[in-house]
Design brief:
Layout (H helix, E strand, L loop, with lengths): L1 E5 L6 H13 L5 E3 L10 H11 L7 H8 L11 H17 L2 H9 L3 E4 L2 E4 L16 H10 L4 E4 L6 E5 L2 E7 L10 E7 L2 E5 L13 E7 L5 E6 L3 H11 L3 H9 L17
Parallel strand pairs: 1-2, 4-5, 5-9
Antiparallel strand pairs: 1-10, 3-4, 6-9, 7-8, 10-11
Helix pairs in contact: 3-4, 3-5, 7-8
Length: 273
Amino acid sequence: MPHAVISCLHANLAAVEAVLADIDRLGIDTITCLGDLVGYGPQPNEVVELVRERGIPSCQGCWDEDIIEGLNACECSYPSQLAERRGHLAHHWTAAQLTDENKDFLASLPTSLRRDRSLFVHGSPNSQHEYLLPDMDAFAALERVETAGADTLFCGHTHRPYVRDLSNGSIRVRVRGPQGSSQPQQERQMQLPMRRIINAGSVGEPRHGSTRATYVVHDAESGAVDIRDVPYDVERTCQAILEAGLPPIFAWRLSHGFEYAERADDASHVCER
């Protein structure tokens, strides 16, 4: 039975509505959300309420946590001081807009969801803030999935969808005898089963070079994964960003489909809030 996995909605109502319409058109009843319902976008209450109305099981994303726990909850790194100031502005604006009821909902979200041998998280099993990038060290990636006790790990956070199969993994262990013993050193090799990481990309703020919202459809029986690209009214969201008084660069990068930050102004800057 196929199910849909969505992530990083970022208060973009037009994109969320378009993706949910696509899921409904496919006749899929089971949806899982990987968090970041809010942040950057102009319609935080509307998006949270739509997820609540649809009864979509959701993880807590880093932005969701940040709004509830405060700025010190964030372990992220901004590429520049200007980018960090924009993040602060978006945080305070979102926190002021959200109703107490919707804040309580975000606070109630778990950091992970599990279905059979599949685990659903925002960033990684370790933290909502950790990025599982597609080119990270294969052993480190395998360790994230294996220690979580999962065959398939669903994540978001990067805003870039991908499927990564981790196969032919092995661990070689050398075991020495007790100190002073003449017992020879033994070597053991263990083959690890295939594991998979599926990144759902982003519904509300795609950064993979396309303005289309992304999500994935997964069939647990066949293992098939379909990365869906869904067009939506980008201009509607961009206009709402400007009318809300949020940084205009949020609209610009949404209309181009990738991240933008002034990396050259302070290349060594790391957010330490």
